[in-house]
Design goal:
Two copies of one chain form a homodimer.
Chain A (H helix, E strand, L loop, with lengths): L3 E2 L4 E4 L3 H13 E2 L5 E5 L5 H6 L3 E4 L7 H5 L8 E4 L6 H11 L2 E4 L21 H9 L9 E2 L8 H16 L10 H11 L3 E8 L2 E2 L7 E4 L3 H9 L1 E5 L11 E3 L7 E7 L4 E6 L3 E6 L4 H9 L2 E3 L2 E4 L2 E7 L2 H12 L7 E4 L4 E3 L1 E11 L2 E10 H7 L5 H19 L5 E2 L6 H8 L5 E7 L23 H4 E2 L1
Parallel strand pairs in A: 1-3, 2-4, 2-6, 4-5, 6-7, 7-8, 8-24, 9-19, 11-20
Antiparallel strand pairs in A: 9-22, 10-21, 12-14, 13-14, 15-16, 15-26, 17-18, 22-23, 23-25
Helix pairs in contact in A: 1-12, 6-7, 6-13, 12-13
């Protein structure tokens, strides 16, 4: 079924696991001819997949120097740049698309190479908060639609949050219409008593080959994961929080919706919960949604912030990636010489990706997607469970952008969540919602005294693993 | 080749991976008839292995109540109790053996069930320091030999330390005879400038089946590992250390050679180094050798301690065990419902187990055993690389005890290291020594400021991962 027709040129930048996974979805659900599509990639990965679909493929790494020369001839007004690359500045691409009048979508606000780990930058400057701030600075005035960070997360999870809020309202007898603007959604979250939101993910995909010493293994982009894992841990900072962590810092610019910790997210663990996994430790990896959701659900009265939830990622990647992070930390973040993106060798597992809304009258509510490797393979070629959750969201964002071509620079939270979910959900496996009486105080202090706040389970202090 | 003859009765208590692995070694290297041996086990594991060797096997879980009734008829003067069980008090067994006049050896000072995690005990009371103290309290006066904690580690590594000291002396031009007593060995360590000793182990054994969610997988006793992992982290506390860690505590009894941290060792990571793995993070799991080696190498002058090295375990278990610990921590130390001791399913890997002596004039020196799964299987049936390092040491300790039957209660450090190593080394694969310029300051503070002591790399503060 075609959701929408697109008559312009589509340039896909980057053709790793997400590019390869989304191409069949684009051709299946957008009325477009393969001849309209050009893939530009920094390397040869996926060249065979492009050929399989009759799509032109060029190896052409983008740099500051050649960006305009490469893209200006390939993009005009009404064309579409889908950026699924790493190491190309999203802000530079968005600026160019606005100048040209082309649509734009990415899954991450990328810096130029080394931007995540440039020791000449402060942790604040290397944060997603700063990257988001620089992208939103382009949002002034009308312009072609540029959808920021619209993969699974960031992206899809913003729509999960809205659906979860509506579900909690329904299940707790709170009478509400579907809010129609930011203020309405923020008021609903506040009225429901949501204190914290985790992006709570447990990826159980395993392969039939073991990770080797000196090898980083993951179910999606290793460069992408290591890049964000070496950025400072970041979280939207809720109004219920009693004290900034000792290593927590506020930024001296921007919306002030989030803080960062003076350490990499890949070495920072938090307690979370998913319906299938139960209580787990996840990594507090920085993500755009930690800032954007916290910002979106901020309530102000007379200019003063009166409500905001704490928002952060709590990511349990696939087991081989947990081991890879452990090894990488032991190497003081010096990348392993070998990398392997797990795909054909996966033999079982589910990516359980959802949002965990905490502090409302029913305690904890997880809402999200459970997609198994078998389901993913049955649905779309060239995907695993992790990539399909991303590529379905990319498709949803593209459809929305084509339908709303003059929305300017927007984040997932500003999109029509129902429309995007309608496009994506056929590819998300089982959508599940589950309440729980879990709190991060469960089982604490049994063997050793721990510093916990017994008065408010939802303090970040209780969630953090020290 | 038979190292020694034994004419008494041998009771083997416990028949898990170590019991099953050591039985063929005993029959190969001690002149003993299978009819002299009785296995008492709490469960049926290994019954087939006992039958294979014609050794009697009884399922008879030992408790406080039946200990005397079971053992008194089975042990007389000159007989030998080899304790390879869990959940039977080593101190109770040693006391009984001394009363009877029987030899004794174990690989761990075990408490009665629940002793490692009894919340009514203080962390100090649940420590290996306390268990060791209670065992050494039996050491007063002559008596039959009781060899405490003589597996790979604790046990074998104490002999590695002595050999490593002699090697460093040789390689740094320090002229020394082989010391003949504790004071001599301690003076040698001091004179060489050894500030810290890690038991630095990297187990790379992997299997052809992946760990499942809710499953604890390890290459040796899961009960044993989880028990010690939930005890407080403990370390021998060197005289060069400038400050007690904020969560560090001294005991108010005993030799004062070690401290403990107010947290489980399985959640406490330290930086270490092995020749094959390079820089890694290991777990600061408490072990008897952390206390015994620190105590043994203490130099006193006029009653005051003038030298002691910091000593601790830095354990990187097999990858599936790293994942199991991560999952267990997420469950707040509530044991996974499934356990699997990896044996036949291992397809590759090496247990690289050694001692890392730090602070001498050549910096760092690792000395130890590299034993691959293939080597282990080729050498002795019913072993993997990890178990064979233990069982070879048990054999060495048994031979020494039979040769020295009236030594009383002794620790590995008090044994003749050359004799034990001569017995064990044919089963340790490649014995390797390697110098390195590694320090725990390597690669630090690159992305984020870290609190390190640049003046003395060997401060525990630098080693600990926070």
């Amino acid at each position: 079924m075609k959701h929408v027709a697109f008559r312009g040129r589509l340039v896909m930048l980057g053709f790793g696991s997400i590019g390869q996974g989304v191409l069949p979805l684009i051709l299946r659900h957008i009325d477009i001819d393969p001849g309209q599509i050009t893939i530009l990639s920094g390397d040869a990965r996926g060249q065979d997949v492009a050929a399989e679909y009759g799509v032109s493929f060029a190896i052409l790494p983008l740099t500051r120097a050649n960006l305009r020369d490469v893209l200006v001839p390939r993009l005009g007004p009404g064309d579409f740049l889908v950026n699924l690359s790493v190491d190309v500045s999203s802000v530079a691409l968005i600026a160019l698309c606005r100048e040209i009048g082309a649509l734009y979508l990415d899954t991450c606000i990328e810096p130029w190479p080394g931007g995540y780990t440039d020791p000449s930058l402060t942790p604040s400057q290397r944060s997603n908060y700063a990257l988001r701030d620089s992208a939103l600075a382009l949002a002034q005035g009308a312009g072609p639609t540029a959808v920021l960070t619209h993969g699974a997360n960031p992206g899809l999870v913003s729509h999960f949050v809205k659906q979860a809020l509506l579900n909690i309202a329904r299940d707790t007898g709170v009478d509400t219409a579907v809010p129609t603007n930011r203020e309405g959604w923020a008021a609903l979250a506040r009225d429901l008593g949501v204190k914290a939101i985790h992006i709570a993910e447990r990826d159980t995909q395993t392969a039939n080959v073991a990770k080797q010493p000196g090898e980083f293994v993951n179910t999606w982009s290793i460069d992408g994961f290591v890049g964000e894992g070496c950025q400072p841990a970041e979280l939207g900072w809720g109004t219920h929080e009693k004290a900034l962590p000792a290593d927590g810092r506020r930024h001296d610019f921007g919306c002030d919706a989030a803080i960062y910790l003076m350490r990499p997210g890949a070495s920072t663990r938090v307690r979370t919960w998913t319906p299938l996994a139960g209580p787990i430790h996840g990594f507090l990896i920085t993500h755009n949604e930690s800032v954007s959701i916290a910002d979106y659900y901020t309530v102000r009265q007379d200019g003063a912030v009166t409500y905001r939830p704490t928002v952060h990622y709590a990511y349990h990647p696939c087991d081989d990636a947990v081991l890879s992070v452990h090894e990488l930390a032991g190497r003081n973040w010096d990348m392993q010489p070998q990398q392997r993106l797990m795909m054909q060798e996966i033999v079982s597992g589910i990516d359980e990706l959802g949002v965990l809304l905490l502090g409302h009258s029913k305690g904890a509510y997880w809402y999200g997607s459970r997609l198994s490797i078998e389901q993913a393979r049955g649905l779309v070629p060239h995907n695993n469970a992790t990539s399909l959750q991303v590529t379905a969201a990319v498709l949803g964002g593209m459809v929305w952008a084509i339908e709303n071509p003059r929305a300017g620079v927007v984040e997932a939270d500003q999109l029509d969540h129902a429309r995007v979910l309608a496009v994506a959900e056929p590819y998300l496996g089982d959508m599940a919602g589950a309440y729980s009486d879990w709190t991060p105080l469960e089982g604490r202090g049994r063997l050793f005294p721990e510093e916990v706040d017994m008065d408010d389970p939802w303090q970040f202090q209780n969630v953090r693993v020290v």
